[in-house]
Structure formats: C-alpha cells, structure tokens
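Tokens in:
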C-alpha cells in the first residue's frame, strides 16, 4: 500500500483590501462631489447643533442677561429643532452607509431615504419657526438655527439631484418632479 502526498493547496486567499471593497482600497475621488457635500452638510448641522439655536436676551433693573441654547435644549417645546437636526444627521448617515458600506441592506433605496430624511428635517425647521411664536422679544432663534435651516434645504435639493442623477425611482408624487440640475 502506498501513500500519495496530496497536492499542495492553491495560492493563499488574499485578505480583503482596505475599505472592504473588492479590487482595491477606497478611493475618495470615486465619490461624487455632491455626495461629499451632502455628507458635509450632515456633519456641519451636527456641529452647529451645540451652538446658538435659541438666544435669550433679557434686561431687568438695567442689568442685561443673555444666554444661548443649542438644539440639545428640550425645555419649553424646543425639541423640534433637535428632531430637525437629527433627521439631517441621519440623512447624511444613510448616504455614508451606502457609500462606505455598500453591502449593508436598508429598507428602501438609500437615495430615497436620504431625500426623505432631509425633507423631513427641512419641514421640521420651518415648523419650528412658527411653533414658537410666543418667544416675544426675549427668546429668539439663533444663528445656528438659521444656518441649519438653510443647510437642510440645500441638503434636500442636493439629495433630490443625486437621486435623479442615479436614476433612483422616487416614490409617489416625488416621481413626477422635474429634473433638478444636470
């Protein structure tokens, strides 16, 4: 009885490359500029949520008092701005997942989810303008609030542009929107 030596195994399996993508590492230049802008909007809105969303200016007996609150201040119904901020950050997070971890399964197309989250964020910011009409001369919206409102609107438009550029099927009445940008 003879014993045959098994053939040597094939070449060793190559470990996954950096970034988890087959065929090479992640190339930032491969990401569309508008996608980078959307990711940046989410980051900027998050950073500015810690600054002056609401300002309190009060004077009593000739002594001025001033205080500012970020989006993280929930007293007196100011939570709308926090939800608006959270939707902007979630929108950018969804897009980041689709770009940097494309194997992650989401319940709907990432571009649709990003568009809807930015749209909800913008609507919540607009509602927050009018929901606090009892501010009077004492409490008002601060710089970060207005900046975040504008960025949520820009994020909504950019997300719509990218969804249309990538031929993503938009749900319901959004499918009939005219094309924005090139």
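Residues out:
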């Amino acid at each position: 009885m003879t014993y045959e030596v098994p053939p040597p195994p094939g070449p060793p399996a190559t470990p996954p490359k950096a970034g988890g993508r087959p065929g090479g590492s992640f190339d930032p230049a491969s990401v569309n500029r508008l996608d980078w802008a959307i990711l940046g909007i989410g980051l900027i809105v998050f950073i500015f949520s810690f600054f002056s969303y609401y300002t309190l200016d009060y004077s009593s007996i000739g002594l001025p008092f001033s205080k500012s609150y970020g989006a993280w201040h929930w007293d007196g119904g100011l939570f709308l701005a926090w939800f608006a901020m959270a939707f902007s950050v979630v929108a950018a997070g969804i897009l980041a997942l689709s770009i940097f971890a494309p194997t992650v399964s989401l319940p709907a197309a990432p571009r649709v989810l990003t568009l809807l989250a930015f749209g909800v964020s913008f609507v919540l910011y607009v509602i927050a303008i009018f929901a606090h009409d009892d501010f009077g001369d004492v409490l008002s919206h601060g710089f970060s609030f207005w900046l975040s409102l504008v960025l949520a609107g820009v994020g909504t438009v950019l997300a719509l542009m990218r969804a249309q550029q990538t031929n993503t099927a938009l749900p319901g009445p959004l499918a009939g929107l005219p094309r924005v940008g090139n």
